[in-house]
Design goal:
alpha/beta, Rossmann fold, 2 domains, 7-stranded parallel β-sheet, 6-stranded parallel β-sheet, 19 helices, globular, transferase
């Protein structure tokens, strides 16, 4: 029997939209090698992942075996994303049951899971034919600079001037959340056989990737930087219909800045007002996805997108910007927007999925980090890769970003020689990243290496 025929791959994502999508794209990549892939999630999360992965070929999604995990109905905690975390914590038993059944049918079970799902998949270590790998939905740059290098006492391979400007970890994480996660994760750490990162040497830099790989070797683990794994479609082959794409079709090339802050960010009413005024004053074309953080109860199959009915814009704003700007109060097809020839810039919170999507399409970024890995991502984009601008420095994170600041940043990115140079570098990076994922490219070789390893 061919090794590939008796190796089963199990994907266990965290139930957050960006994580669900990254791991579904990776599932399809693995499936393309002829391996059976099982995608485990709550019913609502599995449905959301399929619906929002619009650039995936439907025939590729059909090859994935989706398994809806059944967990007890309980009232979820009210906070985002903690209620998703608690929902995930209750999936250990159904995941263990699924793995137990699969272990008797496959020569080897390979579990690929989100770091924050380590507690839930820990039972894989009890099966002699089981092994697990952590899939990081973050760049190596953040993980190494923020966590691994400081803990190990290793140097960060950056020039002195960049090191001085590297943002601190202050304000990135809620200490209570960190303590809560550590309570469950600490005793699970070290059980996995290796780490997978959705990034590449082309993006994070060879020095950073090599430094992380050296740490992995010391820990007797393997590491693969095989991204970006987000699959794309040519603009002329996009089949999804959405009113914002119709609007983009009427705009000049590279003239529109796309403004979106992900699914876990909410702004104050005052900040929304300043952002609206800033966009209007810039007189640049824009699409603005205006919404609060996603809400809902994934336990009871009620994951919803906040329709932002309570978010108010300045009186008459939408009428005044009609033809120049478009406000979207629902989910938007982000990858298709980046791929559209009329899109020329992106104002972002710098979540890693959003960064990757913009990098893949060569769209420069106005970086406005809010939390988590985002400050380091923004630094990587603006200071290291030089494909973006800072909206404001991380040290000023608690200050209101004024309309005049937003106006100036938008004009600089969209209508200045400096912005044109940034856009040119973004396009050059796009081409380099594309080459890395093609036959013989560094990321493709990393992916081939991973597949060879798990089918050994």
């Amino acid at each position: 029997m061919d090794n590939k025929d008796d190796v089963a791959v199990v994907i266990a994502p965290l139930h957050l939209q960006s994580h669900l999508r990254q791991l579904l794209h990776f599932a399809c990549r693995i499936s393309s090698y002829g391996l059976p892939v099982y995608y485990l999630g709550l019913a609502a999360s599995n449905s959301q992942a399929r619906q929002h992965s619009t650039t995936l070929n439907p025939s590729d999604i059909e090859k994935i075996h989706f398994h809806d995990l059944q967990i007890p109905n309980e009232d979820p905690p009210p906070n985002i994303p903690m209620h998703i975390w608690h929902a995930s914590m209750r999936t250990r038993e159904p995941i263990a049951s699924f793995l137990g059944d699969l272990s008797s049918k496959a020569r080897r079970i390979v579990v690929i899971h989100d770091l924050l799902m380590s507690y839930n998949v820990q039972d894989i270590s009890s099966y002699p034919n089981g092994e697990s790998y952590v899939f990081h939905c973050l760049p190596i740059f953040d993980m190494y600079c923020s966590h691994y290098a400081p803990a190990a006492g290793f140097p960060i391979p950056l020039e002195e001037e960049l090191l001085k400007k590297l943002p601190s970890n202050d304000g990135c994480y809620n200490p209570e959340d960190v303590e809560h996660h550590a309570k469950y994760l600490n005793h699970c750490m070290g059980k996995n056989a290796g780490d997978i990162f959705n990034t590449s040497q082309v993006i994070d830099g060879t020095a950073i990737v090599d430094s992380m790989a050296n740490l992995a070797t010391i820990q007797n683990k393997k590491l693969w930087a095989l991204g970006p794994i987000l699959l794309t479609q040519d603009h002329d082959k996009v089949q999804i219909k959405h009113f914002c794409l119709d609007w983009l079709n009427k705009q000049p090339p590279k003239s529109v800045i796309y403004v979106s802050f992900g699914t876990s960010t909410s702004f104050s009413a005052e900040q929304i007002k300043e952002l609206a005024i800033g966009l209007e004053l810039s007189k640049q074309k824009f699409i603005w996805v205006l919404r609060n953080a996603d809400v809902g109860d994934p336990v009871n199959n009620k994951c919803e997108e906040n329709r932002s009915g309570t978010l108010e814009l300045p009186e008459g704003f939408e009428e005044r910007v009609k033809g120049v700007g478009l406000v979207v109060r629902e989910w938007a097809p982000q990858q298709e927007i980046f791929a559209h020839p009329s899109t020329g810039g992106f104002m972002s919170h710098c979540g890693w999925t959003s960064c990757l999507e913009s990098i893949i399409e060569g769209v420069p970024i106005a970086a406005w980090p809010i939390q988590f890995d985002q400050p380091k991502n923004a630094f990587l984009v603006a200071e290291v890769l030089k494909i973006g601008l800072h909206v404001r420095e991380w040290e000023q994170r608690n200050e209101l970003v004024t309309a005049s600041t937003i106006q100036n940043i938008v004009i600089k990115l969209m209508a200045s020689e400096e912005g044109d140079m940034i856009r040119k570098r973004a396009q050059e990076l796009r081409k380099a990243v594309k080459r890395s994922t093609e036959e013989g490219g560094v990321s493709r070789m990393e992916l081939d290496s991973f597949i060879a390893h798990i089918t050994r």
